[in-house]
From TrEMBL:
<keyword id="KW-0413">Isomerase</keyword>
<dbReference type="InterPro" id="IPR001179">
    <property type="entry name" value="PPIase_FKBP_dom"/>
</dbReference>
<feature type="domain" description="PPIase FKBP-type">
    <location>
        <begin position="223"/>
        <end position="314"/>
    </location>
</feature>
<keyword id="KW-0697">Rotamase</keyword>
<feature type="domain" description="PPIase FKBP-type">
    <location>
        <begin position="74"/>
        <end position="164"/>
    </location>
</feature>
<dbReference type="InterPro" id="IPR050689">
    <property type="entry name" value="FKBP-type_PPIase"/>
</dbReference>
<dbReference type="GO" id="GO:0003755">
    <property type="term" value="F:peptidyl-prolyl cis-trans isomerase activity"/>
</dbReference>
<comment type="similarity">
    <text>Belongs to the FKBP-type PPIase family.</text>
</comment>
<dbReference type="InterPro" id="IPR046357">
    <property type="entry name" value="PPIase_dom_sf"/>
</dbReference>
<protein>
    <recommendedName>
        <fullName>Peptidyl-prolyl cis-trans isomerase</fullName>
        <ecNumber>5.2.1.8</ecNumber>
    </recommendedName>
</protein>
<dbReference type="Pfam" id="PF00254">
    <property type="entry name" value="FKBP_C"/>
</dbReference>
Length: 316
């Protein structure tokens, strides 16, 4: 889910242990008034706020160093987020309970520039703490969360899952039509482009999952966090109802029921990173489904087709 979805909901290089001042060129010594954060990467943190005034400027601290690839400029960053107020330790946003990390677009138009400092140049698997006044620790142009005064202070804990190119895909299979064979649609995927459904085949009566490209990475297990590039179509419609190619780029999902759209839970488990999947999901798969806990919905009373590129996974 995009950070902008959270903004809408709420508003309607550093080494391990280094503390950095981020605001207006002001430099200060390492402060004592930094919250204590406990817990393992991938688990909702426990945050204890000291009985001290909050720092006047935005500050960041790497709490644990990951061992994955380093995020870089031009990528989007998929990350779990726990956001709360310093004042009263009031929770504001929590992707851990939603089971869906957020995709942070670091272009100055979706989140505050302080997020760039917290998330760029970080190894995947790192936990980073940021403390900042609400006026420049949340949204662009001084946007604070709803019902939060600009002078109040945010405590944000990031668990960095990874950085990804906005149009990243798995290693290329054939650019010609894949799938087809009468029982599932045929799809064409060109490098860096959104997939196209070229023929539809027969509407599904049961879940069908076909591997179009077989990856050689780690296998996906129940409870893992996966990072995917995906598009979805109502049966027979040329235009997708949702596509990460048209939004921010890859999304993260927790592989559990109710945290992914119908059919994904069954199809993703046991697949490998680097794979491309074609799913045909009948309307009867989960007729009561409306949205995931993270807010991803699908058209109602419709058979659905997905093309999913599995880019990454991280155990929780």
């Amino acid at each position: 889910m995009l950070v902008t979805m959270y903004v809408s909901a709420l508003v309607r290089s550093a080494a391990l242990g280094l503390i950095v001042t981020l605001a207006v060129g002001c430099v200060s010594s390492a402060p004592e008034n930094i919250p204590q954060v406990r817990g393992e990467f991938g688990r909702r943190p426990t945050v204890t706020v000291p009985d001290l005034p909050p720092p006047e400027d935005a500050r960041m601290k790497v709490l644990s160093q990951g061992d994955g690839p380093v995020t870089r400029e031009g990528q989007v960053v998929v990350t779990d987020v726990d956001m709360r107020l310093w004042e009263g330790n009031k929770p504001l946003m929590d992707t851990y309970r939603l089971g869906q990390p957020t995709t942070a677009v670091l272009d100055g138009r979706h989140v505050a520039r302080t997020w760039d400092q917290a998330l760029l140049g970080r190894s995947a698997g790192s936990r980073v703490l940021m403390v900042a006044p609400a006026s420049y620790g949340f949204g662009p142009n001084g946007m604070a969360p709803a019902q939060v005064a600009p002078g109040e202070h945010l405590i944000v804990t990031f668990d960095v899952i990874g950085g990804y190119d906005p149009r990243q895909q798995v290693a290329e299979g054939s650019p010609e039509d894949m799938g087809g064979r009468g029982t599932v649609p045929a799809v064409r995927v060109k490098p860096g482009k959104e997939p196209e459904i070229t023929t539809w085949g027969q509407a599904p009566r049961q879940l069908r999952a076909r591997t179009l490209v077989s990856g050689k990475g780690a296998s996906i297990a129940e409870g893992d966090t996966v990072v995917v590039q995906w598009s979805g179509w109502s049966w027979g419609n040329k235009e997708p109802f949702a596509s990460t190619y048209r939004r921010s780029g890859p999304n993260g999902f927790l592989v559990k029921k109710q945290t992914v759209p119908p059919g994904w839970h069954e199809a993703l488990k046991g697949r490998t990173v680097g794979s491309r999947l074609l799913l045909a999901v009948p309307k009867s798969q989960d007729p009561s489904f409306t949205t995931t806990k993270g807010g991803v919905g699908v058209p109602q009373d419709a058979d659905i087709v997905y093309v999913i590129d599995i880019l990454d996974r991280r155990a929780r």
